[in-house]
Amino acid sequence: MTVSPHAPGRPTSLRQLILRGSLPMALIALSLALTLGVLHVRAVDAEAHAMARIQAAGLAAAFAGRPNDDAMTNALTLALAQSAPTGRAILHRRHATDLAVDSGRHLDPRHTLHTWTPTPQGELETLVDASALHDRHVAGLAMTLLLCAGITTAFLIGRRDLERSLIEPIENVRSRIDRFLHPRGSQADGDDDTLQAIDGLLDELVELRRRHDAAMAEALRRRLQEIARQTRFVEQIGDHFRQPLQALALFVAGMQPGDDLRQRAVVGQMRTSITRLNELLDGVLELARFDAGAVEPAPSTVVASDVFVRGRAAIESDADRLGVEVRWRGGRLPLHTDPVLFAELLQRLVVNAVLSTPHGRVLVAVRRRGDAIRLEVRDNGMGLDPDIQARVFEEFTRLPGHPGYGLGLAVARRIADTLGGNIGVRSRPGRGTLFWVQLDGAASGPPTRATAALRSHSAF
């Protein structure tokens, strides 16, 4: 089972998750906007009250020390004319009538600010025009509302953009998984809960992967059993065929034809036939071993010169007999591959080149290409026709002038496949032939100047 991306009791739809993630930020922004508006209103009120108190103190100082009511009235009138926006001043006295002075400015009763200031003559009441304060309140409220509206609009637009940016790709992923699991008809198209639908599809994928792994394990087990069975079959076939051939070879070796020339010729043909039958049996059994998967490479680090030594020993007699000069290049190059299989592959390619080039020359070169190793066996012999090149690695394809049954290059191709490489041929009739094998990842150690300096030789 997969782990659900949502915990029990939490929002289960993507829209709810987006709302849950973005709503707190919007609420915080709205709270900050409202707080800013309240602070603005309080600051404006405090400023207006401070101004009114300052003007009231100035009016009180204007009539202080006046000897009679007329002098106090004139002083208040003069000071009130210079104290806009204060429009009216009333001096409330304990033992006399109140003294009221009006500046003549219009005062709206709904927008009037009253202040009370104690003086030696009594308590001074001032009425201040608060229309400007009201306008500032309205402007602050409008600013706060616009700010809240902007935050709300940004929240809605951001939420819609998040839904478009997140839900649509997730829906596409869900649809692709759904089409993969249900190619004949989706089973999750009617489900509005995208996360739960994806969760269910992931459960199906996990179950499908589990069944696939189980099927692959069973197939591997059967393949291993089949390889073991084929290996035993090949070994039994080899034993059953080799014993009669060995017995026949002993019988022929014990025959004494005497002086009869015809009998000697027959015995010689029998010995040659038995030898060729043994060679055919060896080739067929080796092909069967590779085809059955019974050959497992054992890579190790080896120097190319060590492999060259084995190759020289295998083809020395044939090269001397045919007058072929063999040159070897790249002997210092380290290789990481199966030395036995690589030596057998080299031997088959070199033997093929020597037999194709009587009284000629053969170049054997091992070169490095990045992390790959390229083996090239080039001769200046008779070359191959295009139709033969197309099937040169097939079984029983005999090359002109070669003895045997045409199994050597077929085995070479199987060795290259077993080592994880590629094999190929390039040839022109009358101009020679190049067989190459490239083994990726077979290079050992960093490249050196010696390997970088190697170049392809096309002439001898």
TrEMBL record:
Keywords: Kinase, Membrane, Phosphoprotein, Transferase, Transmembrane, Transmembrane helix, Two-component regulatory system. It catalyses: ATP + protein L-histidine = ADP + protein N-phospho-L-histidine. Pfam families: HATPase_c (PF02518), HisKA (PF00512). SMART domains: HATPase_c, HisKA. Its EC number is 2.7.13.3. The chain crosses the membrane at residues 21-41, 138-157. Residues 236-443 form the Histidine kinase domain. The keyword Transmembrane helix applies. PROSITE patterns: HIS_KIN (PS50109). GO terms for molecular function: kinase activity. The keyword Transferase applies. This is histidine kinase. It comes from Luteibacter flocculans.
